[in-house]
Hints:
Distance between the termini: 23 Å
InterPro entries: DUF3294 (IPR012917)
Structural class: mainly alpha
Region (Disordered): 94-120
Protein name: Mrp8p
Pfam families: DUF3294 (PF07957)
Largest sheet: none
Helix content: 55-70%
Number of strands: 0
Strand content: under 5%
Amino acid sequence: MSDELATLKKQVEELQSLVKRQSLLISKTGQSVLEMQVSKQKKDIADFDDNYLPAGSNNNNAGTLDTTGFATNEDLVQLVGELQGQLDSMEERSVRRVTNSTKTESKDFLTPLPNADGEIPDPKNGLFPLTLGHFEKLEDIKLYKLAKFYELLAPSIKEQEKFEEFLEGKVGDFHISETPDDDIEKELKSLSKEELDDIFNDVARYLGIRVRRGTDIC
């Protein structure tokens, strides 16, 4: 038991180190993007042409320069905020994955992860399995819904059609995870056991859970 705890502790430390490296990488990426924005803005100002400055103008009347196409301080602040939001979301998912990776008993509670939109499923509504045991015995339809919620499955033809209607303004709202059970049942009938096992394993990897189905145990 002590060896297993030591192994789990080492894995947690490695994952925490990975989170720190990811955070540093995103921070550096954000800084590089800002530097590129500032550099581009300076170049645009230095190389303005007739699109920005009327013909015959000189440096003395440069105040007539049209800067509507340039990035403003407000734009840069918004960019920083968006990058920070992405960083926070990635860090939160990483921490929750680390937590789930330590779950080894069927009775252990799982920690839900946010999806790409920042939505966190509530285990009380039945979408997210409450414990590791519940996840291992997850029914196909619930597994499919969970994979859809985390966008781990390609949209069906019907979902693509609904999304196009949403873009055209024909429907007011659209969520792939709200696909009717009847449609999901039809999709499941077209999937083999191996394909369902692959879906299960993809969801497990996304959540940081160590259990696998089938022969793929990576």
